[in-house]
Design brief:
Blueprint: H1 6-28, H2 33-51, E1 56-59, H3 63-76, E2 89-91, H4 96-106, H5 113-119, E3 125-129, H6 136-147, E4 151-156, H7 163-166, E5 169-172, H8 178-200
Parallel strand pairs: 1-2, 1-3, 3-4, 4-5
Helix pairs in contact: 2-8, 3-8, 5-6
């Protein structure tokens, strides 16, 4: 088998890179209010919850679990304002002992909802990340949260799956390509967190 020349390999890599970046830029450049209004509403609802000393819960699976963990850390600690108070944020993805025991005893579908029953209360907010919108444990978490008076935000790809109609607020991104959706979710999460911090804890000038 002939080895691909460095020049040809680089050309193919450049082409793939450019195509992926273009798809990402196209998704982020949307002016469709379907993708913008939910972000603004989520900022308002989440900021009010934090001001009221309520919890923001976040959950997801796989790459979405990493997004949940990442943004929970940012909200708990800080983004731009290093001197603000720490917010009550809990990633339901982070306690390995709890996740494995709940999965073993009750099934993976219950892994987030059981934690919500333990820690959640009326007035809290749940952000559920799912590229398809059909993750069973996220769907179950939203159902449980709504029963408890917890405001629910379903963050998905452009089609939305079950979470589109189930969540109190549906927040899609302009793609259904799984890797792009995961990347967009992290960008959206940072946008949410920075704006929430600006509302709740504006920096002194």
């Amino acid at each position: 088998m002939k080895l691909i020349s460095n020049k040809l390999r680089r050309k193919k890599m450049d082409c793939a890179f450019e195509q992926i970046v273009k798809r990402m830029i196209d998704s982020l450049s949307t002016k469709n209010r379907q993708y913008i209004d939910p972000v603004e509403h989520c900022v308002e609802v989440s900021a009010e919850a934090i001001k009221a000393d309520k919890y923001i819960f976040v959950c997801g699976n796989g790459g979405s679990a990493s997004t949940a963990s990442h943004i929970a850390n940012d909200l708990l600690c800080h983004l731009k304002n290093w001197n603000r108070k720490n917010y009550k944020v809990l990633a339901l993805t982070d306690n390995v002992a709890a996740i494995t025991s709940l999965t073993n005893d009750y099934g993976f579908q219950e892994v987030f909802s059981r934690q919500l029953k333990a820690f959640g209360s009326r007035g809290d907010v749940l952000w559920a990340f799912s590229t398809s919108g059909n993750s069973k444990n996220c769907v179950k978490a939203i159902e449980t949260a709504k029963e408890m008076g917890i405001y629910t935000v379903g963050i998905t790809g452009s089609k939305g799956g079950c979470m589109k109609d189930l969540a109190d607020l549906w927040m899609p991104v302009a793609s259904d390509e799984v890797t792009r959706v995961e990347e967009l979710h992290m960008i959206y999460a940072h946008i949410l967190a920075e704006n929430i911090e600006a509302v709740v804890s504006p920096e002194e000038k």
